[in-house]
Amino acid sequence: MASSGRLSATIGLGLLAVLLTASCSFQKANAQASKPSFNYTQGGADWGSLCVNGSFQSPINVRTARATVNGTIGPDSSFVLQYERLSNYTIVNKGQTIEFEGGENNNLTLPTAIYKPTNGTSKLHLLQSHFHEPSEHLREGVAYPLEQHFVHNDAATGRFAVLAVFYKIDDEEVPNPFLSQILNYAPGGYNNKTVVTNQTIDLPAWIPINSNYFHYNGSLTTPPCTEGIMWFVLDTPLTMSSAQLTQYQRLTFLGGGDRGDNRPLQRVGTRELQHWIK
Ligand SMILES: [Zn+2]
């Protein structure tokens, strides 16, 4: 966990400011030029000046054989999702992804073995959730069709934690009902078009909280690729139908022949990859 301490010393409240600034300038750029400030047409190869150049970048290939087993998931080693039902949620079509807001009272509490800030608690607030197609992280070298990110922030320390969940196509082509509640109400058009739904989504029922998980220290996967992000990649993939994958592609500009909205794999280097298992 030496890397975690080093990371926490290098980031702070400034990270939130960076993110908010990036978000604002992104919207401004869209309003002016009707196109995003970055895209995936070169797979992120042209993001050089937009991204920090560090050795703690994301995404990575999550390999079980590479990971250190950090113990049995129990009351003290499991993260706790304190999610509530989310009503009248806002969905934004950013072109590169579909994003929905996290609501007022949805939190993630991390194991103190992973995150124990000196100021505040181990609790982080859910800011938003969005998707990448195909998956950004690989599992044993293989990509899943879709990956969802739940982005959490600890306002007291400026730290971020992202929960990553893979999706695979269901053998019987059964659609994922929670995904439908996002995709069926997402606005068309790429220019940060926003819709406030009159729906309620059952967040606690969506996420497999009893899943084993991997943990490592990485970065945002979009510019400015800020480091110091605590990643939690769930072992258990969720399922969806291939029609839902097509629906996502058509909603975003990925349906227009773009290569996907996944950043290419980054080097793991000497980083520790932890596997927390039952
Ligand atoms: Zn993401």
From TrEMBL:
Classification via InterPro entries: Alpha_CA_prokaryot-like, CA_dom, CA_dom_sf, Carbonic_anhydrase_a-class
All copies of domain Alpha-carbonic anhydrase, residue ranges: 36-277
PROSITE patterns documented for this protein: ALPHA_CA_2, PROKAR_LIPOPROTEIN
Keywords: Lyase, Metal-binding, Signal, Zinc
Pfam hit, one: Carb_anhydrase
First and last residue of the signal peptide: 1-31
EC number: 4.2.1.1
Record's keyword annotation contains ATP-binding: no
Gene Ontology molecular-function annotations: carbonate dehydratase activity; zinc ion binding
Catalyzed reactions per annotation: hydrogencarbonate + H(+) = CO2 + H2O
Keyword DNA-binding on entry: no
Similarity comment: Belongs to the alpha-carbonic anhydrase family.
Protein name: carbonic anhydrase
Organism, as annotated: Klebsormidium nitens
